[in-house]
Amino acid sequence: MTAAAPATLVIGATGTTGSRTAALLAAAGHPVKAASRGGVPVAGAEPVRFDWYDPDTHDPALDGVDRLYVIPPVGDPDPEAVVLPFLRRARARGARRAVLLSASSIPEGGPATGRVHAALPGVFDEWAVLRPSWFMQNFTGDHMHARGIRDDGVIVTAAGDGRVGFVDADDIAAVAVRALTDPHAPGTDLVLTGPEALSHADIAAVVTEVTGRPVRHRPLSYEEMRERLARLMPAEFAAMLAGMDRAIAEGAEDRVTDTVERLTGRPARGFRALAERELAGR
């Protein structure tokens, strides 16, 4: 009897990039274990319950797995405390490749996920870190920017006129699949952007044109944004997010890379195309 092929464990399989990555892997015929706190089914994948803070869920999720797509716990300012022991456990159980989702704004060795990034090559010989820019879906899904657009016609940030190479989550997933399944892992970090850098005022203008509803960008100071976010989340995480906006205002995210095209063989998708697909008619 032929042994079952090893599976890819996709953590956060109901989230923005995890759901897309699990679906693409399954559609291509790769065995997938779709991990989420509720063990929610994903088409073509085996649902498994997984909670970063419940070690009893870890070993069952790792059974039969040889590679992982790792999304650290959202909102945790110190994810290495739970993520690194899990990654070492996965390696000891036979997993040989890990692809970590981080962010373009967080360098290797930086805060939060940056510390997991720095440690990853010491755990896995085959690895990659995806560092996408801010998601285009933040303006179309359930993010506070999308809710602000729907409820008030306002995008509120401390980013000023700073520009960002916003990236489509579909493109992030496509790169994740290549990093997980290509014969050779990238063995580096990959900064992912869309094809152009846009300010939040530019985003508001595109949404206005596509939907026919007026949308504007409302700039706040760093301090105002920090206090606004602190009403919704832990103060330390609020300060970090407000600081990321301030970095955008200072030009830290004003860049475009060719990583999506280089890894997938097709150009990265632009924001207008996504807005026309997801917002037209709303």
UniProtKB/TrEMBL annotation:
Residues 129-254 form the NmrA-like domain. CDD domains: TMR_SDR_a. InterPro entries: Ergot_Alk_Oxidoreductase (IPR051604), NAD(P)-bd_dom_sf (IPR036291), NmrA-like (IPR008030). It comes from the Bacteria. PANTHER family: PRESTALK A DIFFERENTIATION PROTEIN A, PTHR43162. This is NAD(P)H-binding protein.
